[in-house]
Structures are given as C-alpha cells and as structure tokens.
Design a protein that fits this description.
Elements: E1 2-6, H1 11-16, E2 21-25, H2 32-43, E3 50-54, H3 60-72, E4 76-79, E5 81-84, E6 97-100, E7 103-105, H4 108-113, E8 125-128, H5 143-162, H6 168-174, E9 182-183, H7 186-191, E10 203-209, E11 212-221, E12 224-233, E13 237-245, H8 250-255, E14 258-263, E15 268-271, E16 276-281, E17 284-290, H9 293-300, E18 304-310, E19 319-325, H10 330-340
Parallel strand pairs: 2-3, 3-4, 7-8
Antiparallel strand pairs: 1-2, 5-6, 8-9, 10-11, 11-12, 12-13, 13-17, 14-15, 14-18, 16-17, 18-19
Helix pairs in contact: 2-3, 9-10
Length: 342
Amino acid sequence: MQFHYTAPQTPLEVMMGGYFCINAIGQIEPGDGKKFAEFLRTSNPPPRCAVYIDSTGGDVDAAMEIGRLIRGAWFSTDVGRYQIDFDRKSVVPIAQRKKFPGNCMSAATLIYLGGRLRYLDEKAKFGVHQFNFPSAKGEEVPRHFLAKSQTLSARISEYISDMGISPQFLLMSAETPSDRIQIVDREKLEKLGIVTGGLTGVNWTLEANNGVSYVKGERDSIYGHHKVMLCYGKDIGFGFWAVIETQGRANELLNFGLVEIVVNGEDIRIDVSSRIERSEHGIYTNVFANISEDEARQIAFSDSFGVQVRFSSEAELFLGISAMDTTDGKMKLRTFFENHKR
C-alpha cells in the first residue's frame, strides 16, 4: 500500500489550519503496518487529519495494524482519493483540490474502521465478505491452517470491539463468501454506526474512580472529543463534570466568565459560573461544578444535556459541548439519581 501526505499549500491555509490529508492507496501487503508507522513518524501529520482510502483489500493483519495507528493518531477516514489539482493551481489563497471516487473493499474496511469519524460519499463503494486465512479454503483444510484461521477470526473480532463497532459488522461480512463481495449502501452503514459523518452517537456508561461514581456520555465530532458526566461522591454530593477537547481554545475555556449547563437542548440553563472548577490536562479542559439535588434531577431526567462556555450572556457563540442526547442513557441516569438522592 502506498501512503501520501499533503500539508497546507499556501500561507492562508497554514494560518487557518486544516488542509491536511493522507491518501492510502492500493493493495495491502504484509508489513504495511510497520510501513505506515514509519510514514507517520517521518511525515508527522497532526491529529484530526483525514485518511482517504482507495483499496480492494489485502493482508488482514496489516490492515488492523494500520487501523489501530489511525485510531491512536486521532485521524478520520474517508473513501476515495483527495489530491491537489495542479492543473488549476495558481497564486491563490487556497489551492484547488479534487476528490476522486474510490473503493474500500475486504481488508481495507478494517482500516476504515480505525477512523474516529468515518465518512462515505455516494460515489464511493464499500464492500465486505468473509475474512479467511489465505490458505484455509476448501473442504480438506489442514488442521494447522484451520487453527490459524480461527485465531485470525478472534483477532478480527477483538479489533472490531476495540474500535467500538457493532458485532453486526462481522455478521454482515460473514454473509458473503470470501470469493465474492457484497457492496453495502451508506444507509445501512449509518444504521450500524460504521459511517458516522461528522458526529458519532453518544455512548453512555456507568463508572467509578477515587470514591466518585458517575454516568458518562461520550461523543466524538468535528468539534472535538467530549464527555459529560453526572457524578456523586459521599463527600461532595452531586456534581456535573465535562471533559472538552481543547483544540487550541484553552485560554477561552479556562477564562470566559459565563459557564452554563444546558438541558433539553437549550430550554433550561443552569448557571454554574460562581462554583466552577476548571483545569487543563493534556488536550482536554476539565470543567467541574457541585450541583444541587434538584439540578441533578433535571439532568438525570433530561432528553439531553451539555455545557456552554461564553464570554457573556450577550455572546451568541459558545465553546463547550452541545447538549448530548440521553436516549441510550436514560435508564442509567435515572437509576443513578434515584440511588443517590436523599
């Protein structure tokens, strides 16, 4: 597989950020995982870079290695090729670029799953089939080949789980023999959470750490990786905690004067400016506030909640986290509240 990195081309593109991309093209060969790791080391693309895939497949293990590297580097994935149009390039503020349709087939789909955000346009083709060990075919399969095939299947299952993808992806792939390919439409891929576009669904979990338990909603989007939590600790009572990917806005997130928990979209605003604790940790800004039992009830029984950080109440734009849908977390949130209320 060949990897090509494109950085910003003009001073304006450099100033605006973005305009970074990687093209991953061709057959996936054994050793391409190490090749991609070295490519990242030498090219040093930034987080949130897009990886465009155009491949009919190849080595499964190498594909999973590449996918894990993509996930660890905070890249998104797309299908096709995204290239500078040198025929139209001139002295302009922003260079002309073209996106060409492409294929993401067989093992290449495992690379695609590595993207934190995953895009697919109408001209792209996404195809799946059974993942088999190359030599484990036919009715008379030697025992050692069968063992290798079963081991590979287990590694693929583990990889899909680690990427946060539904097991339905593996079942869908298993429906088609390895000598054929099933083209899957975008609507089905969106229903399975394989195609996310610029916003993933919210994953709700119940966790505990250092004597504090909490229900956490976690979501990734073009605006960052975000978490909102309804917390309870014996010594602190109820609390609201948000973890915001800073994306170069640490000063504003730490110092803007107005901080509000927003509930049910923006129908309810809870001003916590006077009781907020803020800190920066790596790429994140943490926001914590003690809240009353009544405020905790509003959050626990809400349809959505998030946090807005603004310069003042007159400011129309905000930083923070748009209200996260609680549909998949309602039972956890309500049970959590009922178990801790006085």
